[in-house]
Each structure stands twice: as structure tokens, then as C-alpha cells.
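seq:
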Amino acid sequence: MPLRILIVDDATTARIFAQKCLANIGFHDADFVQAVHGRDALAKIREMPPDLILTDLMMPEMDGESLLREIKADPALQHIPVLVVSSAGNIARKDALLAMGALNVVAKPFSTAELFDVLKAFLKDEEEDDGWGE
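struct:
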């Protein structure tokens, strides 16, 4: 069964770019789902939980920080890794997001190599868990 990856960003080009980067680092067989803000993402997460979430911080209706809080507060969802993407380079904010349970925080714009560095442990775990990526 392919990994299900949810990409949450209000900018279409950012979602497409993130999906291409993820495919290039080894998630080419993943089932990609997109959401335009946190509320949209929560509906999709509750419908069919993803294996990984990549979310922007600044979005209308529900921002990425609120989305992260909702996910980590729900015992049924809190196990899902959430990678936060932010154009705000604030170290204190990054520390706060990590303390809330974010897998990591990546600065926007990011490169494929940066995304790989952040997710290589996740990729390794997935390969060991079920032979994914072979």
C-alpha cells in the first residue's frame, strides 16, 4: 500500500512544488492529497489519515500551527508526523513548533536536498517497516 502524504498550503504552486520535491526524494509512489488550509486538511485527515503531513504555517481559515495543535491533541491522530514549512525564520517559533510535536520545521523556500535531509530518517523507517521503496 503506498504512503499517503497530505500537503497543506493555500498556494497551488507551493503544493505542486512540494509534491515534486517529495517525489524526487523517494516518495514517487506515494498517494498525494492536497488541502488549501487547516480546516480542509482536518476533514481529509479524519476521512483517511495520512502517513505524513507537510503543512505551511500561514494560511487562511486555520493556520499550520493550529492544525498541528489539533492533530497532536487527538489521540487517534497524534502519531502522524507533521513537517512544518515556514517563511518565518524565527528560531523561537521553530522551537515552539518542535515542542508542540512537529517532526521538523523547514524554511521556505526549501530545496529538494533540504527536504531529503529532514525526511531521510522517516524514509529509512518506512523502508524498514514494510519494505516500501524497494
